[in-house]
Write a structure and sequence with these properties.
The structure is a homodimer of 490-residue chains. Chain A is built from 15 helices and 11 strands. In chain A, a hairpin with a 7-residue loop joins strand 8 and strand 9. The termini of chain A are far apart. The relative contact order of chain A is 0.14.
């Protein structure tokens, strides 16, 4: 495609995107297509002749735009919809999309410093900016020069995996034959178990001998007494506790594990296990100083991750991982074959990010952090987060005002966890399914732990208030939708 | 950022990208900055106040554009430069950038079918289109309904890792306690060793007991007799051969391993090892029927990957992995916690791609394959590849015409491997460094295996002719640059 055609079509794509953002509120949040509908709308094979003809660029654009409308749009669940309250958000923003465009247009690879120095050094600086912005201690920043630093790791699953690999490298350097055990609360993200499966530490998802799922307290926080008991039992049985994942904002109810006590428990063992903090969603709130209570103890941890692509206006993927000491990470992931050697890398004077991750190639993702932090500034990001916190508080108070409902878990950040009091799991699932099928809002559920004081083992609903377009009327609309469905069922 | 401002800035970003493509040829290919230069040009901390003001959107654009020019551009090694001949290419194209824009603008997540059905089903269909386009047997396509299918896996490193994990799951299902051994030629990509380290199968990069690096023949192809010998020795010692990586187009010299014979050797063992084909770069050439000799035997393999983001006009990241049987992959990677369950997934009627990969979240990357295959058509992609093959042949003939140079490895696709005859490794490295430092072209080197018949253990230069903007004058220019540096040194 020639550049004049790209220019013309690019302008139209920008307008298509802007139109989508302007219109998305009018669409059903959750796609209504049935399995196979999209497949059936697409030809079985690739076209033999290209559809783009530089003499008639409009024809290709028109064909594409029509198919986006006909095939793609009905098949989308709109994550950018202002009434999307499911899972955790995957924020997008204008500055971030501009950065993604530039990343695509430059098309450089950042696997080594030399393959595009700006890609590596902007990333180093942005991880310092962001680490400082959320209040991480200095040892996690490159500027401290103490061996720590950060990397864009894609997703929190990848951050957890590479942290576990670094932990294994450190543990095996001291005890090569040790049988390793990892620990996380029974509310921790599935990626902890998945990482252990990938690493060969757990033989399957149900290998609770090698990934101990620790019971939680009444607020769904990891119980440190249970953690200590489990670690001591493993030590007594000749196994080595090597990795603890503490969660700051669990997926189910945004519970915040007691990071400091977890670290202190680890430090009392003969060999200190690696402590990794998974703050994938909730870490974003720490741009606000008043939310940094969640980070108490983070000065003692080995690694910390959170995803600006969830709740900080940066497009997916942009998960950030910081380590206090990069050496175990490099021990776990560095392989330097001949065809990747060059003078700058050999001298050790630069960072080669391929050794901080599973893949070799990498995009210029730090542009997104640069554009977003510059566009909004820290004050802008704080105002953004605080407004969602206010709206979550509002939703909570609306739910509390209607005694057919109950809030079942204390709100720590922007997630409200609630249920219908009557009718049990069946009624709550039915209400959720009805709300989602209406297209008016999208919610997901979780199941509380069996030890939960209010609703043990119950199916409860989650509303995460973190959409970039979500404003007070959307939260009030969600509440009206919930109320009307509760009335229908009464 | 409000949509009118995004619209205005988006148009300007499209123009910035198009201007970059028009101008890139005038820039030095390899960045000339020194370590730390970019870091020093960036403030130490994020700004407190946002720079974007909807009342003056131009001011933010002007500041950004000036910094892109001042800070970023000098720090780029230009992968889209028409005289970039290093590594393998990372192609970009107009249709692919348009698709990446749409992907960013929609911002949907494809972790589950339900989280955006179009994201999953378009990917399924595109992997069928592309698999058929390169001549993969029917069992790798979803449409065959036989349990096979494809996935966008990011990079070939990730494809190799998840294939190895699936292989382990299959091997351990039969022999839970078996000590596993993987095999690849000593010319295979470092990602095989890295995958084994991640999986905990190899204890380090030098653990040759668990990743056997098999010697190659005079053309750098895996020697099947050596593979059989190694597998038999491991079996005799009580270890289980579980995974063989065959390379179609090695990184060093694009050697093509004898896939059929590798598979037959595996099939003669008591337990058949998983055979994975890594065609990361060269697989793209198989859009041309005359290049499909490289795939002989692929009907017998378990998994196959190639990266359209290298040489097929699709932006990074878009690495494609196909498996003949998805079940071992799901056994290795599937974990289904409560908060990810939904009716469509539970019924088994849909594909949930989170179970085909390491991360949970995923972007709508199949849009890139859709736009590119539609824009160019199979005929257009074939013409694109054939022109690079012609230019590589031309470069090879130019090198052969000057007896100060020699072509040291038979050309299989678009990579020419050569050296200066006199002066040995020192002279060849010096010439490469001089060419690269000139900014006129960018080449990388490799070291031939110690068993190589022409130049055992020698440092040799590689020129990969696969840039989207690379035309005959650029190849002739590379040759003149090389010649003039050889003359300077004579």
């Amino acid at each position: 495609m020639d550049t004049p055609s790209f220019r013309a079509m690019g302008h139209r794509m920008v307008d298509l995107i802007a139109d989508y953002w302007d219109d998305v509120e009018s669409m059903p949040v959750l796609s209504k297509v049935a399995p196979g509908d999209i497949l059936a709308a697409l030809p079985a094979s690739a076209p033999r002749c290209g559809e783009f003809d530089p003499a008639h660029p409009d024809a290709f654009w028109n064909a594409l735009a029509a198919d986006i409308d006909r095939v793609i749009m009905p098949g989308l669940t709109h994550w950018h919809h202002p009434r999307f309250f499911a899972y955790f958000s995957a924020n997008i923003s204008g500055p971030s999309v501009l950065a993604d465009m530039l990343c695509a247009g430059l098309g450089v690879q950042g696997m080594l410093w030399a393959t595009s120095p700006a890609c590596t050094e902007l990333e180093q600086r942005m991880l310092d900016w962001l680490g400082e912005a959320i209040g991480l201690p200095e040892q996690f920043l490159f500027r401290a020069g103490a061996g720590g630093g950060g990397v864009i790791a894609g997703t929190a699953s990848e951050s957890t995996l590479v942290s576990m690999l670094a932990a294994r490298a450190r543990a095996h350097a001291a005890s090569p034959a040790a049988e390793l055990v990892a620990y996380a609360s029974d509310q921790a993200h599935s990626s902890v178990v998945k990482a252990a499966m990938i690493a060969g530490i757990a033989s399957s998802a149900s290998d609770t001998m090698h990934v101990r799922r620790i019971a939680v307290d009444a607020q769904c926080r990891l119980r440190v007494d249970e953690l200590e008991r489990a670690m001591q039992a493993d030590l007594a049985a000749g196994r080595l506790p090597f990795f603890i994942a503490a969660t700051v904002g669990t997926t189910g109810v945004t519970a915040v594990d007691p990071v400091r006590d977890v670290c202190l428990a680890g430090a009392r063992l003969p060999v200190r296990p690696w402590v990794h903090v998974d703050a994938a969603h909730s870490g974003a709130a720490c741009v606000c100083p008043e939310m940094r209570w969640m980070l108490d103890g983070v000065d003692l941890v080995d690694s910390f991750c959170f995803n600006p692509h969830k709740w900080l206006l940066v497009n997916f993927d942009c998960g950030c991982l910081w380590v206090a000491d990069r050496r175990p990470l490099l021990d776990a992931l560095s392989i330097t074959p001949e065809y990747l050697r060059n003078a700058a890398s050999d001298s050790g004077s630069v960072v080669d990010y391929r050794d901080w991750q599973v893949p070799l190639g990498r995009r210029f993702r730090s542009l997104k952090l640069w554009f977003v932090m510059r566009a909004y500034g820290l004050d802008g990001l704080r105002a953004y987060v605080r407004e969602h916190l206010r709206l979550a508080e509002l939703l909570e108070s609306l739910i509390r005002s209607d005694d057919r409902f109950e809030v079942v878990s204390p709100r720590t950040v922007n997630l409200v966890v609630f249920r219908l009091r009557g009718g049990g799991d069946v009624a709550n699932r039915a209400m959720m399914d009805a709300v989602n099928a209406s297209g008016r809002a999208y919610l997901t559920h979780t199941t509380l732990p069996a030890t939960h004081p209010v609703a043990p083992g119950a199916v409860v609903l989650r509303a995460a208030v973190s959409g970039a377009l979500t404003r007070e009327p959307h939260v009030r609309d969600l509440w009206e939708t919930l109320r009307s469905h509760a009335t229908l069922r009464a």
